[in-house]
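User: I'm new to structure prediction. If I give you an amino acid sequence, what do you actually give back? Let's try with this one:
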Amino acid sequence: MRILWIVLGLLGLGAVALGAYGSHGAAFADARAQDVFDTALRYHFAHLAPLGLAALIGSLAPAAAWRAGLAAILLLAGMALFCGSLYLKALGLAEITNPLAPSGGFTLMAGWLALAWAGLGLRHNGKGNP
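Assistant: Good question. You get back a string of structure tokens that encode the predicted 3D arrangement of the chain. For your 130 residues, that looks like this:
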């Protein structure tokens, strides 16, 4: 799970940097490209929270660690496919990424489902703590 915490920090850094670039440095072809970039950024930021929850579950509950790891893998893959393809499209770097966004969206949904499954693996010690 240590690696996941590092990846989470780097992805957060990347989201802030991309947000700054999109606001101050990017030359978008049109308003639609800006909207696509903003959507990618919104999903990028939004999926840092469940990724952090997966890391937390995996760190605190060894019995649920493999489920949390599965959730993390799916969330990371979904972010790469969905957000990555939208970033590339918005910046005019690739048009062939269109089929990747829906695949990424389904992968993100699977990641959320796996996170719920990881939560089912949490056990309480009688004091309300996992």
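You can read the tokens as a compact description of the fold. Here is one thing that stands out. The CA atoms of residues 47 and 75 lie 7 Å apart.
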